[in-house]
UniProtKB/TrEMBL annotation:
Entry protein name: Geranylgeranyl transferase type II subunit beta
Family, per entry: Belongs to the protein prenyltransferase subunit beta family.
Short name of one Pfam family: Prenyltrans
Keyword match Repeat: yes
Amino acid sequence: MSDAVDQLISDFYAKTPLRYAFDFPQICTFLENRFNFLSRSLETTRPLQIYWTLFPYMLSIRQLKVQLDFLLNSDLWDNMQLSLVQEHLSNAQQQLNKLKPMIIQTLRTDFCQREFHHFHIMNAYGTVLSLKMLNFDVNQLAQNALFMLTQLQCENGAFRANPEGESDARTTFAAVVIGKLTGLLNEPIFAQTREYLMSKQSYQGGFCSNGLEPHAAYTYCALAALKILNVELNAEEKSLHLHYLVNRQTKWGGLNGRPYKDPDGCYSWWVLGALHILDKDKLKLVNKDLFNKFALNCCQPEDGCGLRDKPGVEPDSYHTAYVLGGWSIINGALDDEEVCLGICM
Ligand SMILES: [Zn+2]
């Protein structure tokens, strides 16, 4: 970790009162504003932005339900708190119902009418996952998805971001997720994909992009894709990756993507997700209390509106998705399939 970030976090704790929970209603408000913006924007990454907004929205609704269940089952009836949580939950559900037609319409139009030439595979990934979370029948996209993936496949089993774009474990993971959800995994286009992903393992543990240095995000992508493709790693490979991943926790509890790098909220998802996929019993090797302290304090701004990389950085939907996603994993709020795909049903 750099001295500057070490000092930043130390100063932050010295002057900020500790917090012990996320402010889910505030997070929902932050995300609703993002949806309203995205419904009007013509950003080229809109489908992926919608996914980064919808995923934490669904996670927040799940946590409001947990809070409600807890209050209903507790002996200490607190009617005021109970009606407050009930109100927040029903607001969030109403908002989601209102937004649902707009999200489905936007994503379907973007996916089916755009020329795939200009369509980044991560947008297709965001589209398929968002539609799945909204219980839309994603099999309807199978024909378009097959056409797109056929244009993006490489001889070595990887998939490119777009026909002229790069290919790596992340773009290949996106293709595998799309293939899984649209029922295409038995197509010949995936015949070499297992070998390609296995070739990205580093002797230090972890998986690489195209260089030789492993990275937590690529490690998650490769492990998730291999899991979806039913590939079992051997004990030696598993223990190397385990060692690499567990050592991503820094002294402040937050996780980094590579050795000696600063902690960043988004690695909560990549590291803890990879660990969960590898062997979820080994999540206990991460110091959970210290991680929770980092996530709830360093990643949560004072007003609770959205989540962030670290103190001093503005919140955004990407970090809101991956901080909350990682926090949900270590606190047992996501199942195996949800962790592998990156969804909340
Ligand atoms: Zn980040």
